[in-house]
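Objective 1b: paired records.
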Amino acid sequence: MDYPGVTKVIQVGAPVSRDIYIHRVGRTGRAGKHGDATLILSPFEKSFVRELHDIPIRDHELPDSEIETGEREEKVLALARKVVPEGMLEETFTSLLGYCITPHT
């Protein structure tokens, strides 16, 4: 299935496999257009990046001061609401919930 016009793919959590990661990222940048993908991993999921050894990925570590919960998260969420298309936050949250309740081996 093709979703025309996708310019950004955000994955929260390590996919089950490298193939699924590539499939999802492949939804952006089709037909000669540019696209961008972001993969958000918890510290325990970082080993997944080794499976992507031949794919150019930039690592962005967040300092502990940026991971704290509270006022900063509210600022980030407010900014995301201005930047992210309508409905995407809810869809992303729903996807995250599905990931969290699915058993991972």
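Objective 1b, second protein:
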Amino acid sequence: MGRKEHWSCVILIVITLKQNRTSGYTAEKLMRMFNISHSTLYRWAKYFRDIFPNSSLWKALRGNVRSDVYNNSLPGSLLQFFINKYVFEHIGLIKCLKFLASDALFSF
């Protein structure tokens, strides 16, 4: 994977783990694990909370997933949708990233 794809994957995983804190992934733990700052984590979370759900990209893609992928739980519910479709979780992650593949998605 290239640099951009690597960071897309990290962003998707970090924000999903932050949303699903049941596994003990606090903001501090995620910042240490991925060597990112609080402002970076906040910016990524804000993007998926406020910007992406209202984007033309998401509006164009929205009809291709089940209705239980909620805007207020992106990207976690979208990633879970893809993971549930495939036997192996890493395949679901790859399919989710391909689904979201766009020059505009992670350019924030």
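The two ends are 20 Å apart (CA to CA). The chain has one domain: 3-100.
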